Amino acid sequence: MSTDQQPDLKDRPARLTVGVVGAGRVGPALAASLRLAGHHPVAVSAVSDASRRRAELLLPDVPVVPPAEVLQRADLVLLTVPDDTLPDLVTGLAETSAVRPGQLLVHTSGRYGARVLDPALRAGALPLALHPVMTFTGTPVDVQRLAGCSFGVTAPDELRLAAEALVIEMGGEPEWIDEESRPLYHAALALGSNHLVTLVAQSMELLRAAGVAAPDRMLGPLLGAALDNALRSGDAALTGPVARGDAGTVAAHVTELRKHAPQSVAGYLAMARATADRALAHGLLKPELAEDLLGVLATGTDLPENGEDR
Questions:
Q1: Whose CA is closest to 267, among 197, 169, 214, 213?
Q2: Which parts of the chain are beta strand (E)?
């Protein structure tokens, strides 16, 4: 849904008191964004020194209290805790009667839909799953980055308009995700984002080992162009030795990685195999060049000499 398609005013949530359970990188930023939209953060729970500092930075003057007290004070509660912690937290809050009927209970997990909030639903809460598709730093820049950020939204049909309105008020773009599709949706995001960070970090390490003084400056334009091309063209944007079928170059890469960064070999081979499969399927990698390339990727060794078995 575009921000140009605003819900009618009657569908917009009233000004709400907002609480945050779990002052990691996400919760304080969302609460700060809701404050800009006119809502009122009133309580936050934070355990570690780092989470307390984040709460103070993004939600100054908002008191830090235990989770149950957050629910007592707030009409809208953001449950921004790790995925593996969320089910037990929801169950515990429901069993201790911390949940109030009519209270909006929002979690930000990408993995789960609204069903994980069923214990709170039975206690009368209104369950929403609003997952911001963004990486967070725990600083005020996160609030700015929410502008135009997609949110994966899952909620009961009767709460759909309220969920979408909250996302729009935070500057985001709601995208409806079916309950059953949440794990696949989250896997796709992790594949594209989390693994990208790993790949870029490895690439910078290798460039430093090769004597490049500023690998970030070297990689920035290249990666920016590659990302833009991939988003625009998908597999048609594939380039490089794997897509061209340059088996000798790939073999040389593997040899150098074994010498200087053996921990990177498995990842290189796995991504190269995936790239070769996609390049073949898309017609970029010629079948006659694929045999030697796939042989290198299968064995992780140099090309066979003439007369040797592959």
A1: 197
A2: 17-21, 40-45, 76-79, 104-107, 126-132, 150-154, 173-176
> Cα(46)–Cα(27) distance, rounded to whole angstroms?
10
Give pTM, 2 decimals.
Answer: 0.85
Instruction: Specify the amino acid at residue 201.
Output: A
Token match 């910078």: residue? 204
- Whose structure tokens read 């010629």? 286
- Nearest Cα neighbor of 107 from 69, 65, 79 is 79
Taking 90 as the threshold, does the pLDDT of residue 306 lie above it?
A: no
Each residue's pLDDT tens digit, 108-145 = 999 999 999 999 999 999 999 999 999 999 999 999 99
Q: Which amino acid is at 197?
A: V
Mean pLDDT of 32-40: 96
Enumerate residues 6+ apart whose C-beta is below 8 A from 92: none
Q: Give the whole-angstrom CA distance, residue 30 versus residue 241.
A: 43
